[in-house]
Design a protein that fits this description.
By secondary structure, the protein is mainly alpha-helical. The protein is built from 14 helices and 5 strands. Bound molecules: tryptophanyl-5'AMP (TYM).
Length: 353
């Protein structure tokens, strides 16, 4: 496991003690159906570790409005409900974890302002995500896109999270969160738990199937498999996945396309590198792709069934909203007092109010 996974020491920091389990917080943007990169790199662990951790998960709708060209109000409503349903479908249990919508808790926006005042411009200037999302036309990018990582820091710090389970692309944002928390604590006294990233050795960066030099992403659906893809779409996408002209099937990071497929295979089937290489000895890409299709279809079938049960007829998203509303209101009711207590601590430390 890479990254510092030491649990912050609350007693020495003079911070409130919580239960025995470390707390995790993570978030996902409601920008459409998640893909298997989101699932294998992050979401699957959230569901699997709900007993081990005191877990808080949020659908970060305020982050989803930072790119105006991608923001369509009616679509956003459906996407928020769709993402909440996807999280429940992959196994997030609202009895075990707190699941809520970010904009239901005003403390996120308020703490974000406060943290923005202890964040240096230089820190934000170094953020890779802003550079890649703003593209060439930086002058016209929104200020929200620029301060996006400060809102992310607020999400994490509000809940006193010890660990933040994410994919590799979020590493820099978690490092920034740590810098902001440390600077605040230095200036105003111990206030925030300094969280650590929880990034797995395998699967933290699933690559696009049609271009294994680029990360699998929602903005490039041709290279991604969505959690709701049909068996025939999955078969087709694996069949077209870029590999190479060599004959052996081995875990060699420099054979990027094959390495990505083997990583997905291993995450689904389990087993060591050696056992998998032995299993495919004398076989070719055709067999690998056929087995991958079978494994993924089997993994996704129950998720797709649960999603359909929750969302009902996709032509009537209002029904889904009504069905999920009580769960999300309950989640917000559980999240709110935690968030408000931390916000009050921060305001008090700064001499506000
Ligand atoms: P988002 O919505 O882009 O992605 C959700 C999670 O999926 C991971 N991920 C991947 N993992 C492996 N391979 C990939 N190709 C891949 N693509 C995405 C992401 O790393 C993430 O863990 N900024 C965050 C959302 C956020 C957040 C937070 C996360 C807002 N506040 C607080 C943690 C804590 C984002 O855009 O994730």
């Amino acid at each position: 496991m890479s990254g510092n996974t030491q649990v912050a020491d609350r007693a020495t920091a003079g911070l409130p003690q919580k239960g025995l389990r470390p707390r995790v917080l993570s978030g996902i943007q409601p920008t459409g159906i998640p893909h298997i990169g989101n699932y294998l790199g992050a979401m699957r662990h959230w569901a699997a570790e709900q007993e081990q951790y005191d877990s808080v998960f949020c659908v970060v709708d305020l982050h989803a409005i930072t790119v105006p060209a991608n923001h369509h109000p009616a679509e956003l409503q459906d996407n928020i409900i769709g993402m909440a349903a996807a999280l429940l479908a992959i196994g997030i249990d609202p009895q075990k974890s707190v699941l809520f919508i970010q904009s239901h808790i005003p403390a996120h926006a308020e703490l974000s302002w406060i943290l923005g005042c202890v964040t240096s411009l230089g820190w934000l200037n170094r953020m890779h995500q802003f550079k890649s999302k703003a593209g060439e036309d930086r002058e016209n990018a929104s200020a929200g896109l620029y301060t996006y990582p400060v809102l992310q820091a607020a999400d994490i710090l509000l809940y006193d999270a010890d660990l933040v389970p994410v994919g590799d692309d979020q590493r820099q944002h978690i490092e920034l969160t740590r810098d902001i928390a440390e600077r605040f604590n230095e200036r105003f006294g111990p206030t925030f738990i300094v969280p650590a990233p929880l990034i797995r050795e395998s699967g933290a960066r699933i690559m696009a199937l049609d271009d294994p030099t680029a990360k699998m992403s929602k903005s490039h659906p041709e290279g991604a498999i969505s959690l709701l893809d049909t068996p025939s779409a999955i078969k087709k996408k694996f069949a077209r996945a870029v590999t190479d002209s060599e004959r052996t099937i081995t875990f060699s990071p420099e054979r990027k396309g094959l390495y990505n497929l083997l990583t997905i295979y291993q995450l689904l089937a389990g087993g060591t590198d050696e056992a998998i290489e032995e299993h495919f000895a004398g076989k070719g890409y055709k067999e690998l792709k056929a087995e991958l299709t079978e494994l993924l279809v089997a993994e996704l079938a129950p998720i797709q069934q649960r999603y359909r049960d929750l969302v009902g007829d996709p032509a009537h998203p209002k029904q889904a909203k009504a069905a999920l509303a009580p769960i999300l209101l309950e989640g917000a009711a559980r999240a709110r007092p935690r968030a408000e207590a931390t916000l009050a601590r921060a305001k008090n430390a700064m001499g506000l109010g």
